[in-house]
């Protein structure tokens, strides 16, 4: 009888843990290591109908301790490759990403141009401010565009 | 008859008595120099020495100044090769001359390279003698540089 108590206790504990109301999904749990978690931040640019051949965006983060893990390219073939960024600034609160394309086919509507893979330490929620520093059309002329960011689920294939 | 020439020995050499006495007198005594010749020689030597002493400080300062100028020139040359000031970097990468380096400068060079058009030699940012993708990467890396420690590519 006494020898069976630990086994019963472990089984009960496991059952209770499995039955806990799942605020955290399995994927979210996998993306959490210790007190840190990984998030992906999509960077979107809307060139307002003009072909987008180049962009340069500054992203500032406040509110949490964040480490840049990697940067991946966007959804358009013109910006599929990872953008330029300062690899020595991975521990800073500010990052500038930029990319250009000489493709003939350029996006003219809102498109995801990059995704930042970040590791967030602690429970604080990071806040991001994106500023468009430059956007250019196919003839390398400056164009007006808008930039937005949104926190997305972690995706596969992030490149450091 | 074959006769060899006779070489006199030292003992056989005999100077004339007058010559012998004159030579002995010269070696024993001092040659008197007239005072006006003596003073003329000393005067020339003194004036030459004064002339050299007069220009010696000038030569010394010229040497010091030249050394300092050479050191500054070498330091400037090494510094300009190793480290470029932000203003120089701006001039280097500001292809479209809008006063800043950004991705549009890289786009201009990249499009020119791809189209095979005329390439401005001033776009040879890394001074390797050719305008190519490395220059585009340098401009883009400068545009996104936030660490302030130079360009990393």
Features:
heterodimer; A: 160 residues; mainly beta; five-stranded antiparallel beta sheet; three-stranded antiparallel beta sheet; 8 strands; 12% helix; elongated; B: 153 residues; 5 helices
Describe the overall structure.
The complex is a heterodimer of chains A (160) and B (153). Chain A has 160 residues and is mainly beta. Helices cover 12% and strands 41% of the residues of chain A. In chain A, strands 1, 2, 4, 6 and 8 form a five-stranded antiparallel β-sheet that branches. In chain A, strand 1 and strand 2 form a beta hairpin. The model of chain A is unreliable at 17-30 and 155-160 (pLDDT under 50). By secondary structure, chain B is mainly α. Chain B contains five helices and no strands. Chain B has helices at 17-28, 35-82, 86-93, 103-115, 133-143. The longest helix of chain B is centred in the middle third of the chain and has 48 residues, at 35-82. Chain A binds chain B through residues 53-56, 83-89, 92, 94-100, 102, 133-134, 136, 140, 142, and chain B through 96, 98, 102-104, 106-108, 110-111, 114, 137, 140-141, 143-147, 149, 152.
Choose one word for the global shape of chain A.
elongated
Number of helices of chain A: 2
Strand proportion of chain B, as a percent range, falls in: under 5%
Integer-rounded radius of gyration of chain B: 41 Å
Number of strands of chain B: 0
Counting helices, strands and paired strands, the structural category of chain A is: mainly beta
> Number of DSSP strands of chain A?
8
Main beta-sheet annotation of chain A: 5 strands, antiparallel
Largest interface between protein chains, with number of residues from each side: A-B, 25 and 21 residues
Q: Report the β-strand fraction of chain A as a percent range.
A: 35-45%
Secondary-structure-based class of chain B equals: mainly alpha
Annotation field: number of helices of chain B:
5
Main pleated sheet of chain B? none
Strand-and-helix sequence of chain B, N→C?
A: HHHHH
The helix-strand sequence of chain A is HHEEEEEEEE
């Amino acid at each position: 009888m006494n020898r069976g108590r630990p086994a019963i206790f472990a089984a009960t504990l496991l059952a209770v843990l499995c039955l806990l109301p799942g605020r955290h999904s399995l994927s979210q749990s996998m993306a959490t290591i210790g007190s840190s978690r990984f998030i992906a931040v999509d960077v979107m640019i809307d060139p307002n109908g003009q072909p987008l051949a180049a962009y340069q965006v500054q992203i500032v983060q406040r509110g949490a301790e964040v480490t840049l893990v990697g940067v991946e390219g966007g959804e358009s073939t013109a910006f599929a490759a990872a953008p330029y960024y300062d690899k020595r600034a991975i521990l800073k609160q500010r990052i500038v990403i930029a990319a250009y394309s000489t493709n003939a086919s350029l996006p003219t509507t809102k498109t995801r141009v990059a995704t930042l893979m970040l590791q967030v330490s602690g429970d604080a929620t990071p806040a991001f401010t994106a500023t468009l520093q430059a956007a250019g059309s196919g003839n390398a002329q400056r164009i007006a565009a808008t930039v937005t960011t949104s926190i997305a689920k972690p995706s596969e294939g992030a490149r450091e | 008859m074959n006769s060899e020439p006779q070489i006199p020995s030292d003992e056989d050499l005999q100077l004339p008595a007058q010559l012998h006495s004159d030579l002995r007198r010269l070696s024993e005594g001092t040659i008197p120099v007239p005072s006006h010749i003596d003073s003329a020689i000393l005067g020339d030597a003194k004036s030459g020495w004064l002339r050299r002493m007069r220009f010696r400080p000038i030569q010394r300062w010229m040497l010091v100044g030249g050394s300092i100028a050479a050191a500054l020139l070498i330091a400037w040359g090494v510094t300009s090769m190793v480290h470029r000031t932000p203003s120089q970097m701006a001039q280097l990468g500001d292809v479209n001359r809008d006063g800043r380096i950004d991705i549009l400068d890289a786009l201009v060079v990249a499009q020119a390279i791809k189209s095979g058009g005329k390439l401005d030699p001033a776009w040879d940012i890394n001074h390797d003698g050719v305008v190519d993708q490395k220059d585009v990467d340098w401009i883009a890396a400068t545009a996104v540089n936030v660490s302030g420690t130079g360009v990393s590519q």
